[in-house]
C-alpha cells in the first residue's frame, strides 16, 4: 500500500481494533467482578432499607406501649395502696381503660391492648383487655384471663405474662396463632415494676400478617425474595416453608447457618447452595430479635455483568466502524494538503516560481502541512531573492569589468607620474632629518619636568595614606560607640516591655475585685432572701435571721474592702502609666536623637574615609600617568632617533619606488587577460539566470 491515505486508514483501524479489544477485554474481566460486587451491594442496600421499614412498624408499636407504660407508672404512685386497696386498684384501672383504648385504636395493626396486674395481691381477673379481629373493626372490652385456671409454669397459656416478668425488661414475644380469632399475632410487652417489685405487665398484640404481607412484597432482581428467621436458626416466616423449620436442613453447604450465627456477618453478602444452585443472601437483625433475610440467585446477579460484557463488545465493533470512517476522512484531510504542497515543490524543482492558487490556504493551516507550506514559501522567497541577487551581481560584475578596464588605463598613465614625484620626496626627506634634531632636544626638556611631577605625586600618595588611616580610626571608634548605644537602647526597650507586661498583672486585680464584688452582691441577695424567709418562719426562723444579718454584714464589709483595693489599684495603675511615659520618652530620645546623631557621625566618618581613599587613588593614578608619560617620552625620544634614521632610509627607498612603479605598469598590462576571462564567466552567469521563471 503506497498511498499515505491508505496507510493512515489501516493504522487507525488497527489501533482501534487493538485498543477496543484490549480495553474491552480488560473491561469485561474487571466488570464481571465489579458488577457482581455492585449487585451484592444493591442487595445489601435493599435488605437494609426494607428491614428499616419493618423496624419502623415495630417502633410505632413500641412507642405506643411505652406511652401507656409511662402513664401507668404515673397512676400507680403508691405501691402499698396498690397492694392493699382494691378501690385504689379500680381507680388505676379506670384511668388506664380509656387510655389503652385510644392508644390501641391509633396504632396500625394493633389487635389487642391490655394491662394485667400481679395476681399475687390483686384479683386473678384484674386489669384491662381491649380486643378486635382486624383494623376494620373497633376495639371491644374483653374479660381478662383468670390466673387461677393455670399454673404459673404453664407457659403455653400464661407465658405471655410470666415470661416478660421473669425477663425483667421490655421484650417482643415470639409470633403465635390466636385460635379464638384465627389470626397470627406478635406481642410487645413491658413488665411494670414499682420500687423493685412487679405489679403487672402492659402490652399490645399486633397482626403478624402485616409483617408477612410486607415481606412478600419485597423482591430482589428477577426471582429474589425475603423471609424472616426467628433468631434461633429457624424460619419465622417463609413463602415456601413452614414456620419452625430449621434453616440448616434446607441449605446444602451450611454457609447461611454460619452467617446467621455470626453477628459480624450482618449486612454482608454470603453465598450458599439451595436446591442445587448458588444463591447470595444478607440479613439484618430486627427490633424484635428476628432476622430479616434477603436472598437472590447468584446467576441473576451476574447476568448484569454478562449483559455489560455484550454491550462492551458491541461498543468495540461500533468503535472500529467509526474508526474506519474517521480514518478515511482523516487520510483525505491529511493527504490533500500534502498533494498540493507536492505540486508546488515539483514546480520549484523546474525553476518555476510563479504564484500558486493554493499557497495562501495552505499557509493559513495550523498544522504540520501549514508549517511545510510556510517553510516552502520561505524557501521559494529565498530562491527568488537569490535569483534577484544573482541578476544584480551579474549587472554589477559587468559594470565592474568596464570600470576595471578604464582604471587599468589610468594606472598606467599615473605610474609614469609617480616616478617624477618620488624624486621630489627624496629631497624633502633630507630637510626632515634636520628638523628631527630640534625635536629631540625638546623631548629631553619634557622628560625632566615629568620626573619632577612624579616626585610630587609620591609625596601626595604618602599624605593621603596617613589621612585614610586617621579616617579609619575615626570610623571604628564611631561604630563601637554606635553599637554600645544601640545595645543600651535595645536593653532599655526589652526591660521596658517586660515591666509593662508585668504591670498588666494589676489588671488581673481589677478582674478579681470585680468577681469579689459580684459574689458580694449575690451574698447580699441571698442574705436578703434568707431574712425574708426567716421573717415568714416567725419565731422558728429568728436564729436563721441573725445568721442572715451576719452574712449581709460580711458582704457589705467585703464590698467596702474591695472598694479600698480598687482605689489602691487605681493609684498603682497611674504610677505604672507615669513610669511607662517616662520610659517611652527615654526610648524616644535614644532612638530619635542619640542613635540618629551617631548615624550621622558614622556617615561623616565613612565620607571622610571615602575621600581619603579617593585622594590616595587619585595620587596613585597621577603617579601611574606620570610613569606612562615618562615611558612615552622615552619612546618618543627613541622614535625621533629612529625617524631620523628612517628618513635617511626613506630617501633611498623612494628611489626604489620609482622602479617598482614601472613594475606595476607591467602587471596592469597582464590584467587585460583576466578581464577577458571574467567576461566569459559573466556570460555563463547570465545563462543560469535565464533558467529561472518568475
The residue-averaged pLDDT reads 77
Helix/strand structural class = alpha+beta
| Fraction of residues in β-strands | 5-15%
In helices, the fraction of residues equals: over 70%
Number of strands: 13
Give a short summary of the structure.
This protein has helices at 4-75, 79-84, 86-105, 155-167, 208-216, 255-261, 298-349, 359-364, 368-503, 505-537, 542-691; strands at 110-117, 127-131, 140-141, 171-172, 176-178, 183-194, 197-207, 219-220, 224-229, 235-237, 270-274, 277-285, 291-297. The protein is of the alpha+beta class and 694 residues long.
Which features does this protein show?
11% strand, 73% helix, alpha+beta, six-stranded antiparallel β-sheet, 13 strands, 694 residues, seven-stranded antiparallel β-sheet, flat, single chain
Topology record:
Elements: H1 4-75, H2 79-84, H3 86-105, E1 110-117, E2 127-131, E3 140-141, H4 155-167, E4 171-172, E5 176-178, E6 183-194, E7 197-207, H5 208-216, E8 219-220, E9 224-229, E10 235-237, H6 255-261, E11 270-274, E12 277-285, E13 291-297, H7 298-349, H8 359-364, H9 368-503, H10 505-537, H11 542-691
Antiparallel strand pairs: 1-2, 1-7, 2-3, 4-6, 5-6, 6-7, 8-9, 9-10, 9-13, 11-12, 12-13
Helix pairs in contact: 1-3, 1-7, 7-9, 9-11, 10-11
Amino acid at each position: 500500500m503506497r498511498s499515505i491515505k491508505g496507510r493512515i486508514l489501516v493504522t487507525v483501524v488497527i489501533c482501534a481494533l487493538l485498543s477496543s479489544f484490549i480495553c474491552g477485554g480488560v473491561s469485561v474481566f474487571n466488570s464481571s467482578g465489579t458488577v457482581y460486587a455492585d449487585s451484592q451491594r444493591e442487595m445489601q442496600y435493599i435488605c437494609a432499607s426494607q428491614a428499616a421499614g419493618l423496624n419502623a412498624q415495630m417502633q410505632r408499636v413500641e412507642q405506643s406501649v411505652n406511652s401507656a407504660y409511662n402513664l401507668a407508672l404515673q397512676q400507680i404512685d403508691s405501691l402499698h395502696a396498690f397492694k392493699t386497696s382494691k378501690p385504689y386498684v379500680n381507680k388505676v384501672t379506670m384511668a388506664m381503660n380509656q387510655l389503652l383504648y385510644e392508644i390501641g385504636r391509633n396504632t396500625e395493626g394493633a389487635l389487642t391492648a391490655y394491662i394485667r396486674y400481679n395476681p399475687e395481691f390483686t384479683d386473678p381477673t384484674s386489669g384491662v383487655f381491649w380486643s378486635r379481629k382486624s383494623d376494620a373493626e373497633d376495639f371491644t372490652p374483653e374479660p381478662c384471663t383468670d390466673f387461677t385456671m393455670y399454673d404459673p409454669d404453664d407457659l403455653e397459656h400464661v407465658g405471655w405474662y410470666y415470661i416478660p416478668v421473669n425477663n425483667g425488661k421490655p421484650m417482643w414475644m415470639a409470633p403465635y396463632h390466636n385460635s379464638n380469632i384465627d389470626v397470627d399475632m406478635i406481642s410487645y410487652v413491658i413488665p411494670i415494676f414499682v420500687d423493685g417489685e412487679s405489679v403487672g405487665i402492659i402490652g399490645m398484640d399486633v397482626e403478624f400478617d402485616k409483617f408477612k404481607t410486607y415481606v412478600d412484597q419485597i423482591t430482589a432482581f428477577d426471582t429474589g425474595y425475603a423471609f424472616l428467621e426467628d433468631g434461633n436458626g429457624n424460619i419465622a416466616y417463609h413463602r415456601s416453608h413452614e414456620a419452625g423449620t430449621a434453616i440448616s436442613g434446607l441449605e446444602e453447604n451450611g454457609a447461611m447457618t454460619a452467617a446467621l450465627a455470626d453477628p459480624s456477618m450482618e449486612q454482608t453478602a454470603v453465598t450458599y447452595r439451595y436446591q442445587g444452585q448458588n444463591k447470595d443472601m444478607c440479613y439484618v437483625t430486627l427490633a424484635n430479635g428476628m432476622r430479616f433475610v434477603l436472598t437472590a440467585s447468584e446467576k441473576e446477579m451476574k447476568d448484569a455483568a454478562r449483559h455489560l460484557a455484550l454491550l462492551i463488545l458491541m461498543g468495540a465493533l461500533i468503535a472500529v466502524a467509526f474508526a474506519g470512517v474517521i480514518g478515511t476522512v482523516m487520510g483525505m484531510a491529511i493527504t490533500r494538503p500534502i498533494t498540493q504542497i507536492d505540486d508546488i515543490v515539483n514546480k520549484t524543482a523546474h525553476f518555476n516560481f510563479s504564484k500558486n492558487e493554493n499557497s495562501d490556504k495552505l499557509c493559513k493551516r495550523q498544522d504540520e502541512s501549514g508549517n511545510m507550506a510556510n517553510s516552502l514559501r520561505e524557501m521559494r522567497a529565498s530562491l527568488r531573492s537569490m535569483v534577484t541577487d544573482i541578476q544584480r551581481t551579474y549587472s554589477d560584475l559587468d559594470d565592474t569589468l568596464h570600470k576595471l578596464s578604464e582604471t587599468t588605463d589610468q594606472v598606467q598613465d599615473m605610474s609614469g607620474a609617480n616616478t617624477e614625484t618620488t624624486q621630489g620626496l627624496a629631497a624633502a626627506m633630507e630637510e626632515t632629518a634636520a628638523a628631527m634634531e630640534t625635536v629631540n632636544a625638546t623631548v629631553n626638556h619634557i622628560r625632566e619636568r615629568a620626573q619632577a611631577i612624579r616626585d610630587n605625586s609620591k609625596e601626595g600618595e604618602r599624605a593621603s595614606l596617613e589621612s585614610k588611616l586617621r579616617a579609619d580610626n575615626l570610623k571604628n571608634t564611631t561604630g563601637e560607640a554606635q553599637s554600645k548605644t544601640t545595645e543600651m537602647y535595645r536593653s532599655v526597650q526589652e526591660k521596658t516591655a517586660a515591666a509593662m507586661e508585668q504591670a498588666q498583672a494589676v489588671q488581673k486585680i481589677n478582674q478579681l475585685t470585680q468577681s469579689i464584688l459580684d459574689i458580694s452582691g449575690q451574698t447580699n441577695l441571698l442574705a436578703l432572701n434568707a431574712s425574708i424567709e426567716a421573717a415568714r418562719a416567725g419565731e422558728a426562723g429568728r436564729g436563721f435571721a441573725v445568721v442572715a444579718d451576719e452574712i449581709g454584714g460580711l458582704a457589705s464589709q467585703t464590698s467596702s474592702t474591695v472598694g479600698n483595693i480598687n482605689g489602691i489599684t487605681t493609684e498603682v495603675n497611674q504610677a505604672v502609666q507615669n513610669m511607662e511615659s517616662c520610659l517611652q520618652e527615654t526610648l524616644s530620645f535614644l532612638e530619635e536623637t542619640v542613635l540618629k546623631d551617631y548615624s550621622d557621625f558614622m556617615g561623616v566618618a565613612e565620607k571622610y574615609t571615602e575621600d581619603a581613599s579617593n585622594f590616595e587613588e587619585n595620587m596613585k593614578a597621577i603617579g601611574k600617568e606620570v610613569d606612562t608619560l615618562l615611558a612615552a617620552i622615552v619612546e618618543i625620544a627613541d622614535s625621533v632617533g629612529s625617524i631620523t634614521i628612517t628618513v635617511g632610509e626613506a630617501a633611498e627607498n623612494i628611489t626604489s619606488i620609482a622602479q617598482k612603479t614601472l613594475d606595476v605598469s607591467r602587471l596592469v598590462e597582464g590584467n587585460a587577460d583576466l578581464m577577458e576571462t571574467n567576461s566569459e564567466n559573466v556570460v555563463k552567469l547570465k545563462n543560469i539566470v535565464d533558467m529561472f521563471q518568475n
